[in-house]
Design a protein that fits this description.
Helix content is 38%, strand content 22%. It is α+β, with helices and mostly antiparallel strands. It has 2 domains: 89 residues, no CATH class; 110 residues, Alpha-Beta Plaits. The strands form 2 sheets. It has a 5-stranded mixed β-sheet. The radius of gyration is 24 Å and the shape is globular.
């Protein structure tokens, strides 16, 4: 018959095993949460100047991710001030060789992890700036003027005569776009604000931001061609590939500096 000591040892073993299984099960959750507060930026060198600029961009990525992809958070006054002193929010950073050809000719990738509590406070506690969100802005946007683009047809009033078939507006569509060439958090904010205010854009959702690339889902008033031409005419971004070999991506555009 087992003694009291053996019974206690078996009980402790079961408790330890249960705790170990619990920790292992939570590890993916912890890892996913940690990724929210991490930014990755391509840099040419490990100089103080390049590191300071990269930390600002990385912090902008982390704040946007913590805000569930809403890049309008970067317009908040407190967030804008935080970006100027990004090193105060960084818990750690490291460099690794750049093996991503999309980020050429950068030599390194800076990976920065930021303090989760401070990021959450920036996202949660500060009021939004006066500028409306892209969805709200497009909900009240006025019809595009005739000068926006050669393929854009102005909207007429309900009492006006029907337009001829050859000038009828193209059917609306939803497109996933990649915007490259963003160098800072200010560029992210400028791009999102310009997209939200563009008359061809009905609604906008930021899906991810990584390095110098932002991926957005755009609900457009017309065709993809109309949308890319309008962004080009407005000097927001010019299309570099309207048939990219990437599944799920409809066009790649380069941000206008």
């Amino acid at each position: 018959m087992p003694g009291r000591k053996d019974f206690v040892n078996r009980g402790n073993h079961r408790i330890f095993r249960s705790l170990l299984l619990l920790v292992v099960g939570l590890m993916p959750i912890f890892a996913a949460a940690a990724g929210i507060y991490t930014g990755t930026v391509a840099v040419a060198s490990q100089s103080d100047q390049d590191r300071a600029a990269a930390l600002r961009t990385a912090l902008g990525q982390a704040v946007t991710q913590a805000a569930k992809g809403d890049a309008n958070v970067l317009k908040r006054p407190e967030v804008a001030r935080a970006l100027t002193r990004a090193e105060r929010y960084a818990r750690s950073y490291s460099y690794k060789p750049n093996a991503d050809p999309a980020k050429a000719p950068a030599k390194f990738l800076l990976v920065a992890e930021f303090d989760a509590a401070q990021i959450d406070a920036l996202v949660r506690d500060q009021p939004m700036a006066a500028a409306p969100s892209p969805t709200a802005a497009t909900a009240t946007a006025t019809p595009p003027p005739p000068a926006v683009g050669s393929n854009v047809t102005p909207v007429t009033s309900p009492d006006a005569p029907a337009a001829p078939a050859d000038v009828a507006p193209a059917s609306a569509g939803a497109y996933r776009l990649w915007f490259s060439g963003l160098r800072s958090a200010e560029d992210y904010a400028r791009l999102v604000g310009a997209l939200g205010a563009n008359p061809e854009v009905r609604a906008l959702r930021i899906e991810q931001a990584h390095g110098n690339v932002l991926q957005a889902r755009v609900d457009a008033r017309g065709s993809l061609q109309n949308l890319t031409e309008a962004l080009n005419v407005a000097r927001i971004a010019h299309p570099t590939n309207t048939k990219p070999p990437v599944e799920g991506v409809d066009a790649v555009l380069d941000f206008e500096q």
